[in-house]
Amino acid sequence: MKTFRRHIVKLSFLMLFALFFQGLAQEKEAVELPEYSKYKDLGTKTWINTYGNIRISKRLFWDAQTHLRLFETEATPFFGQVAQVYNRHAIGYIHSKYFNVRLGGVLRLNFNTDETSTDRNLVPEWRIWHQYQFAQSLASMMIYHRIRIEHRWTQSFVENSEYIFRNRWRYMFRMKIPLNDHKLKPKTLYVAPEAELIMQSGKAVVDSPMEDLRLTTTLGYILTPRLTVAAGAMYSQGQDLKNGGYYKQSWAMRFHVYFSPDFRKVKNKLPEIHLTD
């Protein structure tokens, strides 16, 4: 089993880097970069997320996620206006309590948050995504490595604009540390620091391969074997797609609900692996 996991890890990283550099090697258009890197004004956001992990069989589960993301207005930080609504779904396969994979699609509704814009207010974004998650225990904590690859079709708010295809390459490192107990179980408070790097490639990506770097700390509470709530703060920064010399940055408040119904006739216990992040 250990040999199998090592082969999976090697295959995933080889595929990730091969496709990434292939995307960077595509023909580039000239972009006028600033003399020095420049940061845009800091923005504030609020993310409200639900993660459903619905068991279908011993090995299969349905990953059902919905996300509501708000972006500041000039008068109201954090909770200003609706920016995106996500519907992310996938069918997952549990190889073991330390490794699972999933494949599915995303429909993201993007709202125009530019209060001075006269363009369209809403455009859809489509994605196909696959994910490979590895878990390991260390003393009383759990450590997670997540590789997520997304193939996305995006469109600007300009009327009749064409879709742009890009690939996203995401790696997240996460820890889950119990605070009031020696293991993760109901009535346990935990802290979960994480870091995620999101790279991108495609014809539209000329000099902006780093889409986002996210640094997050979350405080969670396990209510029952099937229900957990959490909240935290995230700082992120990344290159502007049109000009990689400019960096966008933001602070976000994040609120999560994790639920994992299991209608099979098995013992009702806390899942041994955190499948839904």
Would you give an account of this structure?
The model is unreliable at 23-28 (pLDDT under 50). It is built from 1 helix and 12 strands; from the N terminus they run H-E-E-E-E-E-E-E-E-E-E-E-E. The two termini are 24 Å apart. It has 277 residues and is mostly beta strands. It has one helix at 2-24; strands at 38-39, 43-55, 60-71, 81-96, 99-111, 122-138, 141-154, 164-178, 189-201, 210-224, 227-239, 246-259. It has an 11-stranded mixed barrel.
Contiguous low-pLDDT stretches (5 residues minimum) are: 23-28
Order of helices and strands: HEEEEEEEEEEEE
Residue fraction in strands:
over 45%
Q: What share of the residues lie within helices?
A: under 10%
Query: Would you report the number of β strands?
Result: 12
> What is the overall silhouette?
globular
At a glance:
With 277 residues, the protein is mainly beta.
Question: Could you outline the blueprint of secondary structure elements for this entry?
Answer:
Elements: H1 2-24, E1 38-39, E2 43-55, E3 60-71, E4 81-96, E5 99-111, E6 122-138, E7 141-154, E8 164-178, E9 189-201, E10 210-224, E11 227-239, E12 246-259
Parallel strand pairs: 1-12, 2-12
Antiparallel strand pairs: 2-3, 3-4, 4-5, 5-6, 6-7, 7-8, 8-9, 9-10, 10-11, 11-12
